[in-house]
Amino acid sequence: MFMEIEHSPQVIAVNQISFQFGSDFFLQIDHFQLAAGEVLGLLGPNGAGKSTFLRILGLLLKPSKGQVTLSDQPVNYGHRGLAQRRQVTTVFQKPILLDTSVQTNVTTGLKFRGIGRRQRNRMADHWLDLFGITHLAKRTARQLSGGETRRVALARAMVLEPRLLLLDEPFNDLDRESRQELQTQLRNVLKQVQTAVILVTHDLYESLGLVDRLGVMLHGKLVQQGSVAGVLDHPCNPQVASVVGMTNVWPAHITQKGSGKTCLHSGAITLNDPNLPGSTSSTLKIGIRPEKILLKPDSSASKTLPNQDDQHSSSKRYVSLQGKIIAWEPATPLVRIQVQLNDNYTSGQPCQTLNVLDFPERSHLNKLEAGSLVEVQIATKDIHIMPDFRHPERVSQNPID
Amino acid sequence: MQPIRDGFWEVLQLIKNGDPELYQATFLTLLTSGSAILLACIIGVPSGILLGLSRFPGRKLLVTLINTGMGFPPVLVGLFVFLLLYRDGPLGNLKWLYTPAAMVTAQVIIAVPLVIGVTLAAIGSLERDWFLQVRSLGASYGQTLLLLLKETRLGLAAAMMAGLGRILAEVGAVMMVGGNLKGETRVLTTSILMWVQRGDYELAIALGIFLLGIAFIANLCLTLVQQRAKERRTG
Amino acid sequence: MFQIRCLPNWLLLLVFSLMLGCSQNTSEPTDNSTYSNSTPSESTSSIPKQPGTSNSPSVSATSESEASDKPESDKVNITLSTTTSFFNTGLAEILAEQFEKETGIHVRILAKGTGAALREGQEGRADVLVVHAPPAEQKLIDAGFAIERTTFMHNTFVVVGPEDDPAAIAQSDDVLDAFRKIAESESGFVSRGDDSGTHKKERSIWEATSTDPSGDWYQETGQGMGASLQVADQTNSYCLSDIGTYLAYLAEDRIQLKNHCDRGDALYNPYSVMLVNPEKFDADRIHVGEARQFAEYLTRSDIQKQIGEFKRELFGQSLFTPDLLSDEQSTGSE
Fold it and tell me: CB–CB of A156 and B137 under 8 A?
């Protein structure tokens, strides 16, 4: 380890930044900060501005407006800011290795920082070992496979012991096995250091094992950030819901019962006394995470069970529904099941189809397969209500994404 | 074909006898060509790098000019330099005409577009985000430049070889501004031309073989360096 | 506003091909024989006056490389190999044109240094030779390659130099004295150094003065008369030149050298015509009959008169003096 400096716990913060290129607007973020040791996953569709944001956070791009502070110091983008830039390292989506040996690649950054040869090699060996690529040390960069290249790029970044590490889709182009291996290695590595990490990824699920916080970007804005559970279970609008994998989203409307109670209806689902979000005047939608749906074989005796809540079971409130499985397919490590709900409506609306992610063992145990009749159980707290809000699109696409 | 066979024999004789004119011409060839390629690289490589990295309106036009310059008729360059250094010309007071300085000037002007062009190609072969990547590793501007030279060293060696080839082969411009003065500005190429004019084809061929030998050795050295660098890449 | 990117690809490629075709013509001068300047009266001065470049001459001079001896199907060609000093005055081309008009025989002129010119004859690539190097001519005759030599005109060499005449040779008695003065004062002297007729003449003068010129002041260019004069002019040196080239260059403002000395028998410069000996080569290779016709043409009295008047109006003196006019016909010029 070199140079233990007393750093403030807050590694990086941005305030009211925006980025424009000519007349094209790409990014506008009000507040964001990251503390030492925190790992944030940044999600969002293509063109959302993730890569632009990453470049700004990596101190490689100067925002058109606004301020970025690193360890409470404002960032300098000229050559005076070299010391600051050296505290932040980015691993790009397509890492570019230098046309030389793996060892030299890994030690290059250290060389820039003026570290002596012996120490350089020692540090490089340490990190090559952590990523399991010591045997590649003498090989030239051109001869590496995709996975090996990524590992070298990661080792090259980690060896610099940055305060902030930015990873842009680090598991792209890797086969499943390499991915899992790399994720495990990365997880172990991150446990050992106090580096703040931002991980941009398309694949929500693979990042979950690594991150403490999630951020969601849409159309150049950071629309939601918070704890993993918070964001996953409570997306603030349907667009965010789709990004975080909440695949069951339907419109909902409110009715007033005679007794002054409110009721929320959405297709076959009815909720009494729902916790409505602040602005009740806006249109609403509900969302249910596919992992939170429990399927049981239909106890045929109780076909007349009302499709309502108020089913109590050990002080939890549930909604029980009935339906039929119309699709069952593996989605390693889970299975994806589509359930068509029985519907008493004749309003012309199509029957609701639930997307469910279940454990294969449980399915097998319950002998569930396509065509089975099932009883669907959803805890009411897992039915998330959100305003039907659409973020306005940007003027143009971000060319970096 | 007889003159060619005789030429081969004659060049051996010349070397064996240590013919002073041969060695004088060779020395001047190496002196002027060596200085010229060094100067051309000093001017051309940084220019090529700068041009390769920058984006400004009119850049395409400049690149086209460079490409044109690569194929520019050397005699025109010779004429231009002659008029420049001529007694009544703008740089006449330098009194460089008919001295090696004039020859080096012409050779540099001929080689620079070539060096710039090939350097441009070498820079262009870098990946799009190369600079961003290096910057993200914490390189200062100086360190970036050094690394750039290292990464493009094969392309730069090619630039040097191309420029040197052109310079060694040059006869028209060099004759015009150098005057082929014995012992002062008479190089191998102008000697060859002179001997053909004087009717001694065998000697001209002998000198030609010698010149080819020099060019071959020079390129061999650069190629070996290039190959070794390549091997380190793939080996 | 005209946008280049709106032009279709095929049009751009077409323009490119045309440009490429045109630029091929401006390649290196492979025509080594005409390295010195062409006739001033024929060259259009689109190139500024002073440079030492060559313009490809008009008419029938060709490059040495493909000297084919096969005649064209109907016309008979003969090849005249001559020195640049004869050619550069323009006289060779004028006479050749006239000869063709009169006889229908086409004369291809190869103009080179004396050594190369004689070699053309020695190797059977020329039919008739005109040079001005008596010792070399004799050698060729002795070796049997040339026959029927006739000296048909002459002029003088001149010693030219910078206007201020640093070696003060203008006062010298003759050329030998002038050369001595130049060597003693170590004033700059430019020699052709190419074994041409002029160069041989220069060396014979040095020998006659028992001086072996060497040192920084003595430069050898290895090139033709025009180029050497140019060098002498630029470096303010003396030079031995044939009068034709010197006057031509002076008239065109290409040089500012002055003629300081033209006295002395040593400066006598005779031009001779010789035929190449057909018996030395395969039958029918040398067109000796037509060559003889041309040689005789040069000695004809009307042509001799023409030679005597050549360029007199331009320079105030004729460039050549005919040798074969009978006394009452001779105009007694310089």
Answer: yes
Chains B and A touch (3+ CB pairs under 8 A): yes
Between CA B135 and CA A89 the distance in angstroms is 9
Enter the DSSP assignment of C51.
-
Cβ neighbours around B62 below 10 Å, total = 13
Residues 6+ apart with CB under 8 A from B86: B92, B97, C50, C51, C234
C contact test, residue of B180, B185, B189, B190 with most C CBs within 10 A: B180
**C193 vs B171, B172, B182: nearest CB:** B182
Q: Across the interface, which of A96, A113, A140 has its CB nearest the CB of B138?
A: A113
User: How many CB atoms are located within 10 Å of the residue C256 CB?
Assistant: 16
- C9 close contact with B: CB closer than 8 A: no
Residue of C52 and A63 predicted with greater confidence: A63
Closest Cα to residue B162, out of B115, B121, B124?
Answer: B115
- Residues from chain B that touch A156, judged by Cβ atoms under 8 A, are 137
Q: Say whether B199 and C115 touch across the interface (CB within 8 A).
A: yes
Q: Which amino acid is at A183?
A: Q
Give me the residue label for tokens 């029985």: A342
Rg (CA), chain A: 25
Cis amide prior to C40 (ω within 30 degrees) = no
What pLDDT shows up at residue A258?
67
State which residues of chain B have pLDDT below 70. 229-235
Contact C53 B176 (CB under 8 A): yes
- Specify the pTM: 0.69
Q: Three-state SS for B135?
A: helix
Q: Are A141 and A102 in contact (CB under 8 A)?
A: yes
Q: Can you give the pLDDT at residue A302?
A: 46
Residue B175, phi then psi, degrees to nearest 5: -65, -45
Identify the residue with better confidence: C63 or A240.
A240
Whether ipTM exceeds 0.90? no
Structure confidence by residue, pLDDT tens digits, C140-192: 999 999 999 999 999 889 999 999 999 888 888 888 999 999 999 999 999 99
Cβ distance of B151 and A109 shorter than 8 Å: no
Chain-centre distance for alpha carbon C135: 18
Contacts of B232 in chain A (CB under 8 A): 100, 140
**A100 and B232 in contact by Cβ < 8 A?**
yes
Which two structure tokens, joined as six digits, stand for B59?
């850049």
| Rounded Cα distance, C114 and C120, in Å | 10
- CA proximity to C117, closest of C56, C183, C200: C200
Contact call for residues B25 and B191 (beta carbons, < 8 A)? yes
Q: What is the pLDDT of residues C262-300, one digit of tens each?
A: 888 888 889 999 999 998 888 778 888 999 999 999 999
Counting Cα atoms < 13 Å in the Cβ hemisphere of A133 gives 31
Give the model's pLDDT for residue A312: 41
